Amino acid sequence: MIVAENVSKRFGTRSVLEHLDLQISPGAVTLLVGANGAGKTTFLRIAVGLARPDEGTVRIREVDVSRNFVEAAARFSFLPQAPRFNPRLTSRQILAFYARLRGRTLDAVEEAEDLWGVGDHRDVTSARLSGGLRQRLALAVFSLAPVSVLVLDEPGLSLDPEWRERLQQYLSQRAKEGATVLVATHLLGEWEGRVDRCVVLERGRVSAELSPDRLRAEFSREPHWASPSEDVPSR
Asked: Does the domain formed by 2-75+147-226 have CATH 3.40.50.300?
């Protein structure tokens, strides 16, 4: 479970999150949507300890992320919007490195390679991988972590339709197994009917929840959700 209470974040004089309260429950895939600058990525970065809130707290499975980051980090896996790897390392070397960090074995590495279709590229450096393959490598790294809280920022951007479908199936299965899954995206059409809950952020606060089966129709009824707000920076 992820619990945010009274979370605020400012960049200079601009407010990105305003006293945000949000609870993401286990056993479901929750989609976080909103216009550019609504605060989606900023909230995710705070939730996984990459940024600190000016006010409020985020807890992952009862652990305050800002106060006890090491303990909290052992409970979640995070996929950033633009994953970066050492360009000189091969796909296998990258996976082996992260497997050691997570206490996983070579068998787990091979399972991740098979799951995300990167095994045939294990000896290719990350610099030579296509954008789609690099994203699948990032998903392989992401799936290595033996955790029950999964946080993803725009995970489908570089994937073709087949692999986007596989990603959605994977997340759905993990949720059925009891995981807490939080996905931030602006690709509403790609996720319609494939999530359990959809939360809309507007000007740094939760403004609505949409029907998972009618995301595009309900989102389009509110034009201000689909365009950046003027006084909130894009983050």
From this structure: yes
